[in-house]
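Backbone-to-sequence.
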């Protein structure tokens, strides 16, 4: 039962992320996060 509950929580979080992604503000946030992740992945490139 506990795992099922956790899965429901995750589903809710993913749904919220989807809604954020749909908005232009959310899209901008994702762009920034992706840029930061790329920079952390390739520190020698900069």
């Amino acid at each position: 039962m506990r795992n099922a509950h956790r899965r429901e929580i995750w589903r809710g979080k993913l749904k919220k992320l989807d809604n954020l992604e749909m908005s232009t503000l959310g899209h901008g946030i994702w762009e920034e996060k992706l840029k930061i992740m790329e920079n952390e992945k390739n520190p020698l490139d900069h």
